[in-house]
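Q: Structure tokens for this one, please.
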Amino acid sequence: MQRFPAWLYHPTEEPKIFHDVESHDEAIEAGWVDTPAKLVKPDAVDPDDTGSTEDKAALLAQAKELGIDAKGTWGVKKLQDAIAAELDRE
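A: Here is the predicted structure, written as tokens:
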């Protein structure tokens, strides 16, 4: 089965086709999913999510480095809180 090109879906952006592993994996870390069924309903999106996509992607990467099972649907505040809690534990 051919993996690329592949469609990905995002809760606030139009579906998009990805053509390579690197861009696909970066998108997944930034909250894109492989099926619309995995999208969070708009009313379930974190209202405190006021950060940019770049901020969120960086926070997701940091959370994963710390071993936090962060989801792409988490808002910036939730990511910041989880990271802070993990750093306090260290």
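A few notes: The first helix runs from residue 21 to 29. The chain has two domains: 1-36, 46-90.
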